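hey so i finally got around to running the thing on that chain from the lab meeting. sorry it took forever, my laptop kept dying and i had to restart like 3 times. anyway pasting the input first so we r on the same page abt which one it is
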Amino acid sequence: MISVNGSAAAVVDEMMEKEEVLSIGSLTLDNGAKVVDTGVKVSGGIEAGRYFTKVCLGGLGDIHFAQEERTIIHVSVDHPAVACMASQYAGWSINVGDYSAMGSGPARALARVEDLYDDLNYKDDSNVAVLTLESRNYPDEETAEYIADKCGVDAEDLYLLVSPTASIVGSVQISGRVVETGVHKLHELDFDIESIVTGIGSCPVSPVASDDLEAMGQTNDCVLYGGKTIYFVEGVEDEEIDEIIEEVPSSASEDYGKPFLELFEEYDRDFFKIDPHLFSPAQITINNIDTGNVFTAGEVNESLLEKSLGF
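ok and heres what got predicted. didnt touch it at all, straight out
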């Protein structure tokens, strides 16, 4: 059985050995939990972002970059139902005392506090837990104890990686969710995500914004209007794919067509008022490897990317 936490912990250990090279830092809390800073009090960098993204994927993804009109992240993932949904998806809201952050990464597969796990044929069995936190603050001992307890591990066996949205690592790791975003949309459309053998995606990486709110808008726009994915599936009929393909890309949403931050303000900064069908890459391709047929919907929206990113 694949252990996303075991694989991710090995990646974090490597990060901590290369702190100076990666421009990151780490500290150990009084209860033994390790906190890895990738952008709060340090600069981080593109390579730190690659490592962070791989940690989120439970060590199951390959990430590299290219420079085109913009910096592009390329992500390839085998076992995407496990890597993307059981691990990478940002589905655990951490609220302990005064500390609040959105948690993603493999520790979610140990805590299993989300209803999503009722639909996934996966459960990790690990004595180490790794969680990534999108936050501008370090977690304290109380927060670490809470997370460790939910995961069924000792605090000294817990790794917590922290990245603000407005940081190099923040920009990289959010664009690095392009494959996951499409898998999640397919799941919401009741498509059998266990049939996805491999997912490959590309997405622009946002410049670092002036603050976390601006960064939230720009990073989301990169996926919604610039993300492209292809999924290789087996064990499904062409008719099943044909029925849902036009519903998968972000353009299928009634809220499509405006920069994300503009929508966010229109909905009084209430994330949950935004049409959930918006959250998907701009373009989706599905290759049925049983029949060889290919289905595509959506397209990159260059004008909205330029409006959001400024170039």
